[in-house]
Amino acid sequence: MFKFNLNNQDLIAPCGLYCGECSAFQDGSCGGCISRQGLCLKYTEICKIYDCCVEEKGLRTCCECGEFPCQKLKAFFDTPEWYNDVIGNLQKIKEKGLKKFLDEEVKRVEQLVSCAKRHKIVHCGKCRKWPCSKMKREPLTPA
């Protein structure tokens, strides 16, 4: 059904974002934060979360850290919608585990992709009906 593999734990970024939602992943220009391939490398200059979580502390996600939630998350996700979303995602990961969180995200994004196809667009970011009931914040697209 999809030309990309949504069911990959490496699409869960250390900050809690699910990279499978992003138009850059879906169009093949990024492999997701953990992959360190493609467009995500551009963000390494401004996002210090990966370095702190993975490189410095050897963790998989920020929710494993004793300082969670920290100022780095608040500083990077500077709107309440984005901040609340990543904090909520990280809390789900902490409670349910990566696999269960991934299963839920795959279902959610499959619905978004199907909806976009019904509207004859490639990604939610191109939708004229935004905002919509399917997403609590703007679609994940590269800046």
Number of domains: 1
| Number of DSSP-assigned strands | 0
Give the termini separation: 27 Å
Percent in helix: 40-55%
Helix and strand succession? HHHHHH
The biggest sheet amounts to: none
What Rg is obtained from the alpha carbons, in whole angstroms? 15 Å
What structural class do you assign from the helix and strand content?
mainly alpha
Instruction: Report low-confidence residues grouped into runs of 5 or more.
Output: none
Beta content: under 5%
Mean pLDDT: 86
Question: Helices and strands in order, then pairings?
Answer:
Blueprint (H helix, E strand, L loop, with lengths): L22 H4 L13 H4 L5 H8 L14 H6 L3 H17 L1 H21 L25
Features of the shown structure:
143 residues; 42% helix
What does the model show?
This protein has one domain (9-126). The longest helix is centred in the last third of the chain and has 21 residues, at 98-118. The chain is globular, with a radius of gyration of 15 Å. The protein has helices at residues 23-26, 40-43, 49-56, 71-76, 80-96, 98-118. It has 6 helices and no strands. With 143 residues, it is mainly alpha-helical. 42% of the residues lie in helices and 0% in strands.
